[in-house]
Design a protein that fits this description.
The chain has 6 helices and no strands. It is mainly alpha-helical. The relative contact order is 0.16.
Length: 108
């Protein structure tokens, strides 16, 4: 169950941690701490997302489905931090692109 932002980032670390270096950790010292960690060795969420994009695997599509599932239909507060959603806006356009290239047998 993903009931809070900490669990959301744990799920991402499990999903993206298989892509090699760039595994990121979640600090429990407050919301938004992960954003301060971007770009620091061993704690970046950006690097695994870029790796997932380049490798064309199912990870971005899985994250996209998760984000849609976690959306609050009433427009209330989300457990996904707004900073992550801003970052995700850079990757979302490529979700269908990587899926379509994989179907056609193309690689990056």
């Amino acid at each position: 169950m993903i009931a809070n932002s900490e669990n959301f980032f744990r799920y991402l670390s499990l999903l993206l941690g298989t892509l090699g270096e760039g595994f990121f950790g979640v600090e429990s010292s407050g919301e938004g701490q992960w954003a301060r960690q971007l770009g620091q060795p061993g704690t970046s969420v950006l690097e695994p997302l870029v790796r997932a994009l380049c490798q064309g695997g199912p990870e971005l599509e899985q994250i996209d489905r998760l984000l849609k599932h976690l959306e609050d239909p009433t427009g209330g507060a989300s457990i996904v931090p707004s900073e992550f959603l801003e970052l995700w806006e850079s990757f979302a356009p490529f979700v269908n692109t990587t899926k379509n290239k994989k179907k056609k047998g193309q690689t990056w």
